[in-house]
Amino acid sequence: MRFSTVVATVAVAALPALGANFDVTVGASNGFTFTPSSISGAVAGDTVTFTFVSRNHTATTTTFTNPCPPPAGGEGPGGFDTGFQNAVGGVQPVSVVTLADSGTHFVSCRQAAGAHCQAGMVLVINPTEDQSLAAFTQHARNDPIQTDRL
Ligand SMILES: [Cu+2]
């Protein structure tokens, strides 16, 4: 029997520097939650991987002061919107967002006309002293639903 040696040459393409990834679980324990609810040190090119584990939620950027509900498509430059991700029935959808900038972003859920948002379903990316998770959460809980966004 004759054996031959196969030498595989793997071409390594020049890849852009890969950013860090931050994992966020959406709806853990059937709650209206992002876990963790705060991410710090995220920069442009980093990714956030949202895993939706219950109900039907979105992860959508919104405003700090009037967050509920987030606008479809996400708020402002660098904003994002995963769209509705339905975990009812056991499938756990995953949505990966690449951050376009290194700024502060306020994230909530668009479901139920802002009711999930008002229940405190919030996430802050790169919070600051003034624009903290606690302050954003308070705005969400106090926010009259923005009917012009429905
Ligand atoms: Cu939701």
UniProtKB/TrEMBL annotation:
Record keyword Oxidoreductase present: no
InterPro entries recorded: Cupredoxin, Ser-rich/MCO-related
Domain of life of the native organism: Eukaryota
Residues making up the signal peptide according to the UniProt record: 1-19
Gene3D superfamilies the UniProt entry points to: Cupredoxins - blue copper proteins (2.60.40.420)
Entry keyword Signal: yes
Organism of this sequence: Dendrothele bispora (strain CBS 962.96)
Swiss-Prot/TrEMBL keywords: Signal
CDD domains (UniProt xref): Cupredoxin
Protein name: Cupredoxin
